[in-house]
Amino acid sequence: MTQTISNQTHWQKVLRQQKLANAQRWLTLIETHDDPTSLVANDYDNFLRALETTLQSPGTFDLAYRLIQSIYIVALDYADWDRWLIYLENALGTSQTLNKHSEQATLLVQIGDILYRTANLKRAKESYETAAKQHKLLKNQAGYASTLSKLAVLYDLQGDMYKGVALSKQALIIAESLDNKKVAAQINLNLSSIYYRARDWEASLFTAQKAYRFYKEQGPPTFATKALMNIVAIWAELGRWEKVDQAANNLMNTLTVSGDIRTLSQLKNNLGFSAFNQANYEVAETAWQEALRLHSQIQEPKELASLYNNLGMVYTEMKEWDTAEDMLYKAITAHEQLGDIYNWANSLDNLADLYEAQGKTAVCQQALEKAHAGLQPIANSPHTQELLNTITQRLNSLAAS
């Protein structure tokens, strides 16, 4: 009996050594591969098994951490967020036990990224803020600037555009002083999104193009694609349809080959805008339904809310009243859960359009009054003030009629 137990222990040790050797092999392979994105796409399950092996013991933390950093950026777009949150929190706990402060800061940022995508904005902000403090204490200026940029997006999303822009500019000053184009690219990309939400198309386009140039120089290619996505969305808002169509065709091929469902869904969302703004409502509806179908595999709350709102608008134009109302209520609920007051009010304004088109004056007025009251706490930003003025004028017109 003793011999059997001893042999079992021995073979368990041998098996673990083999698994660790295999994990090291996968790490070496991805760190030296010409196309890590395609490698992870083809062998995702193998990489996860390797990572799970290395996360089991503090003694293999360094190997686990390197594996996380090697595959995290690619895996983030797979929307495998629940599983990755477990991996990252496991690694964070070990890093704290081992007093690996630099690694802690990076893992906290990555946890914030997951929490942001799953609409847990309060915890995401806390994670980013803790990471920013650690980066600052460690005198990691690049990490500090990058994390400030992520915090900026959260502030903007929750209605404080000026804080978002100020943090972004502070981060840019740091990145430029370091001549760190990779961090500057990320900051410009996030700043472009803030300006986009503020409907400042020229500022949004300028910063998106800066991000695109930097990413083309520094990589990774997936982020150059994200910057180009922002550019395409802005071209659509500016009515530059020829540019939209040309870029969209190239992007569609790239994203289909890479299997990046999240970005492909965003592209179809942008194409829907392009068609809608040209009054091609059936084309817009098809694009947005395709985006919704793709996004159902991901369930990213912010993007789903946007798609529901867009479909509500197009079904209003198509006079499919019940479907339009259902979509807009879904958008209103989703934006409210996100704490995105501006887009919540915007969807209520779109709901008022629906009721007005049906001649339902009373409920139209109720929707507008609710949006008007909700916008008051964030009325200081220009785009919010513009929406507030529009709603006020509509209410005045209803009162006069």
Protein architecture, described:
The chain is mostly helical. 85% of the residues lie in helices and 0% in strands. It has 19 helices and no strands. The chain has helices at 2-32, 36-54, 61-76, 81-97, 101-117, 121-137, 141-157, 161-178, 181-197, 201-218, 221-237, 241-258, 261-277, 281-295, 301-317, 321-338, 341-357, 361-375, 382-400. α5 runs parallel beside α7 (141-157). The radius of gyration is 24 Å and the shape is globular. The model has no long low-confidence stretch (mean pLDDT 90).
What order do the helices and strands come in, and which of them pair?
Blueprint: H1 2-32, H2 36-54, H3 61-76, H4 81-97, H5 101-117, H6 121-137, H7 141-157, H8 161-178, H9 181-197, H10 201-218, H11 221-237, H12 241-258, H13 261-277, H14 281-295, H15 301-317, H16 321-338, H17 341-357, H18 361-375, H19 382-400
Helix pairs in contact: 1-2, 1-3, 2-3, 3-4, 4-5, 5-6, 5-7, 6-7, 7-8, 7-9, 8-9, 9-10, 9-11, 10-11, 11-12, 11-13, 12-13, 13-14, 13-15, 14-15, 15-16, 15-17, 16-17, 17-18, 18-19
